[in-house]
């Protein structure tokens, strides 16, 4: 089994992969405090709080001495942070780098259990780089648009920023999210099993705006997007998607894109698999056919049980996961807990999330926290009283196409085990009588 996983990893990464997750302690401590605070009446003062205040500050954080009584002395000045704010020195959740053999082609995962609401802080957005993170001067960066257009165009960042803009909240999920989990529960935390999805507010110009300016010719059906990184990542995008909700994004959560997210310009294809959201975007070419690039032939295709491969499996199917309680946590004692998690669909809005505490035998509808937006993370919550018995927590999402998130058994029935992409099955967390939460297949 381990061999198979490593082989699949090799296929994707071109290197060895270690299956071990070493993020357990940080995840446990970070998460527990927030839930103790949220549900303070039930578990205040419990074992879950200990250790948190002692947590190590994240790399680069300025550590100020804690004031014994902050009402009795002046606080630090507004100049101390150099003019750009940072989070509290006591908050230390970080992205977890999946242990790929090479740092040249690597990924890091969002600590979903430590998140609130639906927006991922930019500094915790997951990353997937095939050729490292380039440093690009926005003053000289250009986007070229050519091919089957009446008028080829060239844009500087300044040109793009003069055009009408939109701001939209959308998730990006790598279709490799969960790839270790097909055959056996492998990674311990929700960061490991589901951390290749993040939500930001993205701002930029609609791709249709620049395509209309250039004038697409009759017969145009696909558009190639190309990145300016060492991978020169390229993907073909159906022209209908390009004309629908695609965005040339230059901003994320109210500021310029982070370099890791494609600074100064990335393609945002709401609901499509992460790989198509080309970062460091420099070229668009309109054509009457797909370009059959490496990323849509050798990679990012899904080998089915009958030996045929699904190609251009672009829309991410509906999915959900419980982030609290989740793997590697420990419930200190029986009592009240608010079960919470995230649901999302690449095909539209989430209409319903159901939660089971008995491994799928019975289900209860969770409350959806607004706003419930299409192709965006949606927060769900359900009050739960744990009586100290063994339990298996699961969530299943439904989207506005009527689709319901499948069990792993159902998914494997259809897809087989020859491919690692697009795992959107129901996740199970086992609660032991001692409160230990573990990743299981139920
Ligand atoms: N130019 C370029 N674009 C890219 C990639 C890349 O390596 N180079 N990786 C892709 C993959 S596989 C994913 S999942 C997303 C990840 O986006 P993020 O790093 O902003 O989370 O970017 C995509 N766009
Ligand atoms: Mo990806």
Automatic annotation (TrEMBL):
Keywords: Metal-binding, Molybdenum, Oxidoreductase. One of its GO terms (molecular function) is sulfite dehydrogenase activity. Residues 313-427 form the Moybdenum cofactor oxidoreductase dimerisation domain. Its EC number is 1.8.2.1. The keyword Oxidoreductase applies. It comes from the Bacteria. InterPro entries: Ig_E-set, MoCF_OxRdtse_dimer, Mopterin_OxRdtase_euk, OxRdtase_Mopterin-bd_dom, OxRdtase_Mopterin-bd_sf, Sulfite_DH_SoxC. Residues 130-292 form the Oxidoreductase molybdopterin-binding domain. Its cofactor is Mo-molybdopterin. This is Sulfite dehydrogenase. It comes from Paracoccus onchidii. The gene is soxC.
């Amino acid at each position: 089994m381990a061999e198979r996983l490593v082989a699949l990893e090799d296929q994707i990464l071109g290197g060895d992969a270690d299956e071990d997750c070493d993020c357990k302690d940080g995840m446990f401590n970070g998460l527990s405090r927030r839930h103790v605070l949220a549900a303070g009446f039930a578990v205040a003062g419990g074992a879950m709080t200990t250790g948190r205040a002692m947590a190590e500050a994240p790399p680069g954080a300025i550590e100020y001495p804690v004031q014994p009584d902050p009402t009795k002395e002046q606080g630090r000045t507004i100049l101390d942070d150099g003019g750009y704010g940072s989070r509290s020195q006591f908050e230390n959740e970080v992205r977890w780098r999946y242990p790929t053999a090479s740092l040249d082609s690597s990924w890091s995962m969002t600590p979903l259990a430590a998140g609130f609401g639906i927006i991922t802080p930019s500094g915790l957005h997951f990353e997937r780089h095939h050729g490292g993170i380039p440093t690009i001067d926005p003053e000289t960066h250009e986007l070229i648009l050519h091919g089957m257009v009446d008028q080829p165009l060239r844009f500087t960042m300044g040109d793009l920023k003069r055009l009408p803009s939109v701001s939209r909240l959308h998730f990006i999920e790598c279709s490799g999210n969960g790839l270790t989990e097909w055959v056996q529960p492998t990674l311990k935390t929700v960061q490991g099993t589901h951390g290749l999805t993040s939500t930001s507010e993205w701002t930029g110009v609609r791709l249709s705006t620049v395509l209309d300016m250039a004038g697409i010719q009759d017969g145009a059906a696909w558009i190639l997007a190309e990145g300016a990184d060492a991978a020169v990542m390229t993907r073909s995008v159906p022209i209908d998607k390009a004309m629908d909700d695609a965005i040339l994004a230059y901003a994320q959560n109210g500021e310029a894109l982070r370099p890791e997210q494609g600074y100064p310009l990335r393609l945002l294809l709401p609901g499509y698999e992460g790989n198509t959201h080309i970062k460091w975007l420099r070229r668009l070419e309109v054509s009457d056919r797909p370009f059959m690039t490496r990323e849509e032939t050798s990679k990012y295709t899904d080998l089915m049980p009958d030996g045929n491969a699904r190609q251009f499996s672009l829309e991410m199917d509906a999915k959900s996961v419980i982030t609290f309680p989740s793997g590697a946590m420990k419930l200190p004692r029986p009592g009240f807990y608010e079960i919470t998690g995230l649901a999302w669909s690449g095909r539209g809005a989430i209409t319903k999330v159901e939660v089971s505490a008995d491994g799928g035998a019975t289900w209860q509808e969770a409350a959806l926290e607004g706003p419930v937006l299409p192709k965006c993370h949606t927060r769900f919550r359900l009050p739960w009283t744990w009586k100290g018995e063994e339990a298996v927590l699961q969530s299943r999402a439904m989207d506005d196409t009527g689709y319901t998130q499948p069990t792993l058994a159902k998914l494997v029935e259809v897809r087989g085990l020859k491919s690692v992409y697009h795992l959107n099955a129901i996740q199970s967390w086992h609660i032991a009588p001692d409160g230990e939460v573990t990743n299981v297949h139920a």
